[in-house]
Design a protein that fits this description.
The complex is a heterotrimer.
Chain A lengths: L1 H34 L17 H7 L2 H33 L5 H13 L2 H12 L5 H8 L11 H29 L3 H9 L4 H12 L1 H17 L2 H6 L11 H11 L3 H31 L2
Chain B lengths: L1 H25 L2 E7 L7 H15 L3 E7 L3 H13 L6 E5 L3 H6 L13 H7 L4 H4 L3 E2 L2 E2 L2 E13 H6 L11 H11 L7 E4 L6 H11 L5 E3 L2 E2 L4 H15 L11 H9 L3 E7 L3 H7 L4 E4 L9 E10 L5 H15 L1 H11 L6 H5 L1 H9 L5 H5 L3 E2 L7 H16 L5 H16 L4
Parallel strand pairs in B: 1-2, 1-3, 7-10, 12-13
Antiparallel strand pairs in B: 3-12, 4-5, 6-10, 6-11, 6-12, 8-9
Helix pairs in contact in B: 2-14, 9-10, 14-16, 18-19
Chain C lengths: L2 H32 L3 H5 L10 H9 L2 H33 L4 H13 L6 H10 L6 H9 L2 H12 L3 H9 L4 H12 L1 H17 L2 H6 L8 H8 L8 H21 L1 H13 L1
Helix pairs in contact in C: 1-14, 3-14, 4-7, 4-8, 4-11, 4-13, 5-8, 9-10, 11-15, 13-14
The chains are: A mainly alpha, B alpha/beta, C mainly alpha.
């Protein structure tokens, strides 16, 4: 009896969250999957069951492979650099040095800016001829570079911007990690006469490993969710050289009005993220979540 | 007795009359319209002012005009609004959206809305080449509003400096290349020519293809991407950067191009005439506007936005929408709009108004877009336009950045377009 | 400290400052451009005249005040909703351990991975069925139940000693009374931490608001700025920069004033 009351109360308290989560996470996940199995309704063609046709056309769609590859390159190009910089920043800011507050603020500020505003500003950096970077390099006699207009430079340009935006954010996690390391360890290392470099590699780095794993996986998930800048900078061009999966989903659903194909693409993305989350679960969450 | 009846009928009439008047005041027709616009100046204010003017003259109609970004954004917004609870009754949308909107059964043809001979005359009062994109299946679905052609802006000071005659801009491809070579500086501080290849590459390409004697599509279900003349046109575009070195390699950003021109980083640019007023305001050098040069012939696509009326509307809303559209496209308003933006007057009558007459007299470039209309063709538009267009855009960019040849890229794009359009034939 | 050490540390210090300079450069550039005429903005002449015209222009071209209000309304709808719903849910998980709680919690965690950003297409369909397209409510609703917030609060609640709860019970506190008098006060730091993270996230969110908002009355700052920057004929750098600064100003100023709290909140939310 008491159990029943407890159960009832528990579910009652959980209900608001449960309803909203079901409505906006679980239900759409299922309908997305179902939609991917049907064709679109239009005047000339009624909706019909098409099974895995949508997925087949996805696999034979060169743009799909292109945006997938771009996403992977983006992750590969930004995450290690961001993490490296984040560690350096955290080490800097963790020490009592003059202007520490200012430095921390400078590193962290990009995190507080919306990506769309960041893209606006960086657009003027990258503009050929008249942009800041081209003006700076022209002083040294370099030729103008069409940063966002060449397939070879557009993704790296976006990577640089992304690193700028994210490093300070990751810094915070390392800062948190560093503060859990007991200061006595540093004292001991000093007494032993070990160099700073040694101390970092032998002590700090291993202790920061869980943080790194956490950041790594979250950064990876994030790299699929963040596409705002494409609306301003390149719209995915030139020739899809900077297009990303989520932006392609947006285009397909809202510009091409092809909900069926957009659903197939969404399912692909969901599976990819699920696998990543599974990896996260196996590596670290076990330790943290259910302590 | 009869006196009593008179009195009664009088008071009844008065009462009825009053209730009818107040009824009319309550039953204001409300219209929502989305529109895209150039943010060259505070142009949203120009539209808002015109709409306010309309409402003061038609107190029974309330118009809610919503600025919604570029053409793609506006179509997305208007269409999504239809599915949500707050639909729009009319909108200014891309002239090339006509097939897509029809397929969605979203719009009504104007032929069904005009009845009197006066209205039919109104439908025929616009420049025929501006009507082309609005016509499908023998009916007219769009009324021209913010319409443009591509024109060539050139820096007269730069022409003088390079020893070219600033009053005779190049009129052929050969002349264009020669002039651009003279204008391109070796140190990279000034290019001869820039043609934008982001945003609307297919539009610029429509001009080059036309100049080479071929249109990009023959109808809403048939594209000509792999036609030899079309392929050649793309090769010509690429050669500007590769072979002749008069234009930067890679793609050129639509959004920042005007700034490049204003900064003197390019002596000539191809751009929408919708830029004219802004360039006029901001240029601190002497500039000119010319028709696009001729390859085998002159040519440019028209461009810009048409008025559409949505199907999901009451008779009253349709009538009110028609009133608004007639007002916005009336010669005097079209003339004012043209002066404020650089977009074209949409009818010959607009150019007969004092407003535009005196403006053209004092600023001849304002007439170039209109004069060019006789060489103009419809803008690229098919069923599933957005997707077919993306294929073409990708092909153009792939060629310009050198990842495919013009022939490969356009053949691929044609094959993709065939797949998409086949079901519509 | 040896001479060599001092040398390396001052070298490091310089590196730290150079890095910081690079990090604030984009923002400084936006300031530079916003306060100069666009022709001057491109050329770096220190003596070119300053102007406020760009702000005036930007301000007159788009209703930023309304956009700002919309963003404010959006955030003030999402955050209290998140806090309320998550508190109840976390309390249910920690104190009631109702049957099926583990499965339920696993289902909650799914949202950490499948965030609403990814389900834009279907969520749009759902909201248009509910008639909530182009409303602030619709814009906020998919985010109101936050797995992250539930998770954070669950962790915090778990660390609260049982003795406190028992004492409150002895004093005659009801179930909800215990939540309100014992759990909530002790979880205040978590509430603050999550609030700052949530506000800065939703203040800056773009894709979903872009899709769901149709009119000036609902468009938040980010979307207004995005539309402002997608003209048909080109952008004016200086006006664009001014518009960008106007859009980021409220949050940026708040951050500059409370930066320590912001950073610490992000840290706290990250450790959990």
């Amino acid at each position: 009896m008491k159990d029943n009351v407890r159960n009832f109360q528990g579910w009652l308290l959980f209900a608001p969250a449960a309803i909203l989560l079901l409505a906006f996470t679980h239900y759409p996940t299922i309908t997305t999957f179902l939609n991917s199995l049907y064709t679109n309704k239009s005047i000339i063609r009624p909706r019909r069951f098409s099974g895995i046709e949508g997925y087949e056309s996805m696999l034979s769609d060169p743009i799909f492979w292109k945006v997938f590859a771009n996403n992977m390159w983006l992750a590969l190009g930004t995450i290690p650099t961001s993490i490296g910089l984040a560690i350096i920043m955290a080490l800097i800011v963790n020490k009592a040095i003059p202007g520490r507050g200012l430095l921390r603020m400078a590193y962290f500020t990009p995190t507080m800016l919306p990506m769309i505003a960041v893209a606006n500003i960086w657009l003027f950096f990258y503009a050929p001829e008249i942009g800041l970077i081209d003006q700076a390099t022209s002083i040294f006699g370099f030729e103008s570079t069409n940063w966002l207009g060449s397939p070879s430079t557009v993704l790296p340009s976006i990577m640089v911007m992304t690193v700028w935006k994210e490093a300070g954010f990751f810094m915070v996690f390392y800062l948190a990690g560093l503060q859990t390391i007991s200061p006595e360890l540093e004292e001991a290392a000093k007494l032993e006469g070990s160099s700073r470099w040694n101390y970092f590699w032998r002590v700090q780095y291993p202790l920061l490993l869980p943080t790194t794993l956490f950041v790594l996986i979250n950064a990876f998930l994030n790299s699929f969710k963040l596409v705002d800048h494409l609306f301003v900078l390149t719209k995915g061009g030139p020739d899809n050289a900077s297009n990303l999966i989520l932006y392609y989903i947006y285009e397909t659903a809202f510009a091409f009005l092809d909900v069926s194909y957009a659903s197939a693409l969404t399912i692909f993305l969901l599976v990819l993220l699920a696998l990543t989350a599974l990896a996260q679960f196996l590596f670290i969450e076990k330790r943290v979540h259910y302590r | 007795m009869s006196k009593f009846f008179k009195k009664l009928s009088y008071s009844l009439t008065v009462a009825l009359g009053i209730s009818m008047i107040s009824g009319a005041a309550i039953a204001k027709t409300e219209l929502t319209m989305y529109y895209p616009v150039a943010v060259g100046g505070a142009l949203t204010q120009t539209v808002d002012a015109m709409v306010a003017d309309f409402m003061s003259k038609n107190p029974d109609i309330e118009v809610n005009a919503i600025y919604s970004g570029n053409y793609d954004d506006t179509r997305i917004k208007a269409l999504t609004a239809l599915e949500s609870g707050k639909p729009a009754q009319l909108s200014v949308m891309f002239s090339i959206d006509v097939h897509e909107l029809r397929e969605l059964d979203a719009i009504v043809p104007f032929d069904d809305l005009v009845s009197t001979s006066e209205e039919k005359a109104w439908l025929n009062s616009f420049y025929p080449s501006l009507m082309e994109n609005g016509v499908a299946a023998g009916k007219t679905w769009g009324i021209p509003f913010q319409r443009s052609t591509i024109v060539m802006y050139y820096n007269k000071d730069a022409f003088r400096e390079a020893g070219l005659d600033p009053e005779t801009p190049p009129a052929t491809w050969g002349g264009l290349i020669a002039a651009a070579k003279a204008l391109t500086k070796d140190d990279g501080s000034q290019w001869g020519l820039m043609i934008p290849s982001t945003g609307y590459p297919y539009w610029m390409f429509g001009a080059l293809a036309m100049q080479n004697g071929q249109t990009l599509m023959t109808s809403g279900d048939k594209t000509n991407f792999d036609h030899p003349d079309v392929i050649e046109a793309l090769e010509v575009w690429k050669s500007f950067g590769e072979e002749h070195k008069i234009m930067p390699k890679g793609t050129i950003e639509w959004g920042t191009l005007r700034q490049n021109f204003l900064e003197g980083k390019t002596a000539m640019m191809w751009h929408s005439t919708g830029n004219l007023t802004t360039v006029k305001k901001k240029a601190n050098f002497d500039f000119g506007v010319a028709m696009l040069p001729a390859g085998k012939r002159r040519g440019t696509p028209t461009g810009g936005g048409n008025f559409y009326i949505f199907k999901d509307t009451s008779d009253e809303e349709r009538k009110a929408s028609m009133k608004l559209i007639k007002f916005m496209t009336a010669p005097e308003n079209s003339a004012k709009w043209s002066v404020a933006t650089g977009y074209m007057g949409v009818s010959p009558d607009a150019y007969e108004t004092d407003t535009l007459k005196s403006y053209v007299a004092s600023f001849p470039p304002a007439a170039v877009a209109r004069d060019q209309l006789k060489y103009a063709t419809a803008e690229f538009s098919t069923y599933q336009t957005s997707r077919v267009k993306k294929g073409l855009n990708d092909a153009i960019q792939a060629t310009l950045v050198g990842s495919k040849t013009a022939k490969e890229a356009l053949t691929d794009a044609q094959a993709a377009a065939e797949r998409i359009l086949k079901p519509y034939r | 400290m040896t001479y060599k050490n001092r040398f390396t540390s001052s070298l490091e210090l310089m590196g730290a400052y150079i890095l910081a300079a690079f990090w604030v450069l984009p923002l400084l550039y936006a300031f530079w451009a916003a306060f100069h005429y666009s022709n001057d903005a491109i050329h770096f002449n220190i003596f070119s005249p300053l102007t406020l015209d760009n702000f005036r222009e930007a301000w007159s071209q788009a209703p930023f005040l309304r956009y700002g209000l919309n963003t404010f309304l959006l955030v003030s709808f999402i955050l209290p909703g998140q806090l309320l719903i998550s508190t109840l849910a976390a309390y249910a998980f920690v104190r009631f351990k109702f049957s099926g709680a583990n499965v339920a919690f696993a289902l909650v965690l799914v949202q950490l991975m499948i965030t609403p950003e990814i389900l834009i297409v279907q969520n749009y369909v759902t909201l248009s069925k509910l008639g909530l397209v182009d409303t602030i409510t619709g814009m906020g609703l998919p985010y109101v139940a936050s797995a992250f917030c539930i998770f954070l609060l669950r962790q915090t609640f778990k660390s609260i000693p049982k003795e406190l709860e028992d004492a409150a019970e002895l004093e005659g506190c009801s179930t909800m009374g215990i939540l309100w008098k014992v759990y909530v006060p002790l979880a205040t730091p978590t509430f603050i931490a999550f609030s700052l993270v949530s506000v800065s996230h939703h203040w800056n969110n773009f894709l979903w608001p872009l899709i769901i908002s149709n009119s000036v009355e609902t468009r938040p700052l980010t979307v207004g700025l995005g539309i402002f920057g997608s003209p048909e004929t080109g952008v004016d750098w200086s006006i664009m920069s001014a518009a960008t600064l106007i859009s980021v100003a409220p949050l940026l100023i708040a951050f500059l004033i409370f930066q320590k709290q912001f950073v610490q909140s992000f840290m706290q939310a990250g450790i959990k």
